[in-house]
């Protein structure tokens, strides 16, 4: 059994980190002490205590306990659990601990709904993905979400030193970790308790004299412990902070995730910079193409150029908002018909009040513009695009205002 499992806390007081939700007068602790366990979702990175806390809660509740993992669970597994609802086994209620719930499809999640809603089943689910994106809304609305955060190095130190003590008890070898070695493990494992303890175990097994040096810790601390988010939370240029932007890009570079970086840069160029600096699109595309052709490590150079350009460029999401507004009308069923003058092929029946297309060709008029209806009748006065407050869009607004007067 791995050290991380041997040392797994049995009570909340043994859990390291998560002091914002666990501890005296903290919300999750108060809920557990009440004895009435609601449906809950634990969200956060791996190795920070989600599974441990869920198991502590499950073991403290006088309920029939079932455990499933979303990576392997089937609809049949869920039906088997549900079949116990009105039996003697489920007389005190059924608690389902569902790890990695994001891997269940919508149909599988829906199969739990009825029983969660009437209280026959209490759900405690954990996920490493943002639940507001990956979990069915009907499930989400019936659960309380608790966010678990990476454990800070100073909090991790308690678990790391406890790990070395347990290794001493198991092997009979006195382990003496240098303070710098302990601190390096705590810093280098990205707030992941499990990986920290795995590193403790590796260092202990690799030590010939019981001494754990910082050099040994550096050799065995897993490089993959660096955290990054493949799907977007850390692909950020928010707030036009070029230093933060290059930091999060560096995380992705260190993880070797070139495709994810390039895709996000291309999206940002149109979504966040947009019409305030349209030239950002071809420039970023050139940087992305260069990065893909170069590969790592040189790819980091054009990536850095694109990241800083986007972070420091003027911003406008006017085009992004205009498209979303137009899509909303289409989804609401307001996308039908065309103004008659835009229909190149038409038939004037006997009941037509006005015959002929009567399209006005803008280039035949001064400034290449003429007033006529282009939107469908139901939307003829709709305004989707609002000019941004940047120099380029203000210039375009002024230009068209003069002509359209």
Kindly describe this structure.
This protein has 405 residues and is of the alpha/beta class. It has 17 helices and seven strands. It has helices at 3-6, 27-34, 50-60, 75-82, 106-117, 131-134, 137-140, 153-171, 179-188, 193-206, 214-220, 242-254, 258-273, 280-294, 300-312, 318-331, 391-404, and strands at 40-43, 64-69, 94-99, 121-127, 144-147, 176-177, 211-212. The strands form two sheets. It has a five-stranded parallel beta sheet with strand order 2-3-4-1-5, with helices on both faces. Strands 6-7 form a two-stranded parallel sheet. Mean pLDDT is 84; it is low at 224-232.
Q: Give the quaternary arrangement of the chains.
A: single chain
- Which series of helices and strands comes N to C? HHEHEHEHEHHEHEHHEHHHHHHH
- The total beta strand count reads 7
The gross shape turns out to be flat
The number of helical elements comes to 17
Structural class by secondary-structure content: alpha/beta
Distance between the termini: 79 Å
Descriptive terms for the model:
two-stranded parallel ribbon, alpha/beta, 17 helices, 5-stranded parallel beta sheet, 8% strand, single chain, 405 residues
Task: Show the helix and strand layout.
Elements: H1 3-6, H2 27-34, E1 40-43, H3 50-60, E2 64-69, H4 75-82, E3 94-99, H5 106-117, E4 121-127, H6 131-134, H7 137-140, E5 144-147, H8 153-171, E6 176-177, H9 179-188, H10 193-206, E7 211-212, H11 214-220, H12 242-254, H13 258-273, H14 280-294, H15 300-312, H16 318-331, H17 391-404
Helix pairs in contact: 4-5, 8-9, 8-10, 9-11, 12-15, 13-14, 13-15, 14-15
């Amino acid at each position: 059994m791995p050290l991380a499992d041997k040392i797994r806390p049995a009570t909340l007081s043994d859990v390291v980190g998560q002091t914002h939700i666990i501890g005296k007068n903290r919300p999750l602790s108060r809920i557990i002490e009440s004895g009435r366990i609601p449906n809950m979702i634990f969200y956060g990175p791996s190795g920070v205590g989600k599974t441990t806390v869920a198991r502590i809660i499950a073991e403290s509740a006088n309920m029939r306990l079932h455990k499933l993992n979303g990576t392997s669970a089937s609809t049949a597994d869920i039906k088997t659990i549900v079949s116990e609802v009105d039996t003697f086994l489920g007389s005190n209620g059924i608690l389902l601990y569902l790890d990695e719930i994001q891997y269940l499809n919508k149909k599988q999640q829906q199969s739990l709904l009825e029983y969660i809603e009437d209280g026959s089943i209490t759900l405690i689910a954990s996920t490493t993905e943002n639940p507001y994106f990956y979990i069915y809304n009907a499930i989400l609305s019936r659960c309380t979400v608790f966010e678990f955060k990476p454990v800070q190095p100073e909090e991790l130190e308690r678990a790391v030193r406890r790990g070395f003590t347990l290794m001493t008890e198991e092997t009979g070898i006195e382990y003496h970790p240098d303070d710098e070695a302990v601190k390096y493990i705590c810093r280098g494992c990205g707030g992941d308790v499990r990986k920290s303890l795995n590193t403790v175990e590796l260092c202990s097994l690799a030590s010939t004299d019981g001494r754990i040096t910082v050099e040994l810790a550096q050799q065995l601390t897993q490089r993959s412990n660096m955290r990054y988010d493949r799907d977007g939370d850390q692909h950020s240029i928010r707030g036009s902070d070029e230093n933060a932007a290059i930091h999060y890009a560096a995380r992705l570079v260190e993880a070797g995730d070139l495709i994810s970086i390039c895709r996000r840069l291309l999206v940002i160029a149109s979504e966040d910079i947009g019409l305030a600096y349209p030239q950002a699109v071809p420039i970023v595309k050139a940087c992305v193409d260069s990065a893909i052709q170069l590969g790592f490590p040189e790819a980091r150079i054009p990536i850095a150029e694109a990241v800083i350009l986007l972070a420091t460029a003027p911003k406008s999401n006017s085009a992004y908002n205009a498209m979303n507004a137009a899509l909303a009308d289409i989804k609401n069923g307001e996308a039908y018909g065309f103004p008659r003058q835009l229909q190149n092929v038409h038939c004037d029946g006997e009941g037509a009040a006005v015959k002929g297309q009567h399209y006005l060709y803008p280039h035949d008029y001064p400034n290449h513009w003429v007033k006529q209806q282009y939107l469908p009748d139901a939307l003829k006065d709709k305004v989707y695009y609002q000019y941004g407050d940047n120099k380029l869009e203000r210039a375009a607004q002024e230009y068209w205002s003069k002509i359209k007067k």
